């Protein structure tokens, strides 16, 4: 039901399709979802709400279905209610990109043990809370590009040891702490382009085994205002 100018959807609309496995509602004008939205869809694994007008949602709105893929890209969400995701232990892909988020509550990511892809790009995030990724043991791809991140704590990624793709481009990062990537030995792609980096701590990338020829395939440091002195000889 995509691109149909749909503005509302009710529980009655979904009662007659109990075997539905994927629901695509992108490109509509939906402003709200009813409480218990998915309670009559016990087989639903994919819900795509891209490009609607959603801002606030009822508590536990996605409970009732074994969702694996949830796309909320391109809406008007400013604040996350952690209860939205607390029933989604099967979720593997969560896309919250292109919204208006300025923060992500720590509790919002504590009930997603199977999550592999988290997309928070193109929001207004200024920082990540300490321990934000600690309960995401299977996370492989993290998209944080196009935000307002200016600082990252040294242990931000310590528990996300399965990360293979990390996108941090188009932020406001001026410094990176030593040890930031210490535990990311499976990393294949790291994008730090278009930030405010002038130098790199000596040895910052030493534990990324790929730089020794094993796993990393792309390291992008372009479009940063590098200071051309001996401190960045490390990069060569």
Automatic annotation (TrEMBL):
SUPFAM superfamilies in the record, alphabetically? L domain-like
**InterPro entries for the chain:** Leu-rich_rpt (IPR001611), Leu-rich_rpt_typical-subtyp (IPR003591), LRR_dom_sf (IPR032675)
Name the domain of life this protein comes from: Eukaryota
Q: Which UniProt keywords apply?
A: Leucine-rich repeat, Repeat
Q: What is this protein called?
A: Si:dkey-90m5.4
Instruction: Give the species.
Output: Acipenser sturio (Atlantic sturgeon)
């Amino acid at each position: 039901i995509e691109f149909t100018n749909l503005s509302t959807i009710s529980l009655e609309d979904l009662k007659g399709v109990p075997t539905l496995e994927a629901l695509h509602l992108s490109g509509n004008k939906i402003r709200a979802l009813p409480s218990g939205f998915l309670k009559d869809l016990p087989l639903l694994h994919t819900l795509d709400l891209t490009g609607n007008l959603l801002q606030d949602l009822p508590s536990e709105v996605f409970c009732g279905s074994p969702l694996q893929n949830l796309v909320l890209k391109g809406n008007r969400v400013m604040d996350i209610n952690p209860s939205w995701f607390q029933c989604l232990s099967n979720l593997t892909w969560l896309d919250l990109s292109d919204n208006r988020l300025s923060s992500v509550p720590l509790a919002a990511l504590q009930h997603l043990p199977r999550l592999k892809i988290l997309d928070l790009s193109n929001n207004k995030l200024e920082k990540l809370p300490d321990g934000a990724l600690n309960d995401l043991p299977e996370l492989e791809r993290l998209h944080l590009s196009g935000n307002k991140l200016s600082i990252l704590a040294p242990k931000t990624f310590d528990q996300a040891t399965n990360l293979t793709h990390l996108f941090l481009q188009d932020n406001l990062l001026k410094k990176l702490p030593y040890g930031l990537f210490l535990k990311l030995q499976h990393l294949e792609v790291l994008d730090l382009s278009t930030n405010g980096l002038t130098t790199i701590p000596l040895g910052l990338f030493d534990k990324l085994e790929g730089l020794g020829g094993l796993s990393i395939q792309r390291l992008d440091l372009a479009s940063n205002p590098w200071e051309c002195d001996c401190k960045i000889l490390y990069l060569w």
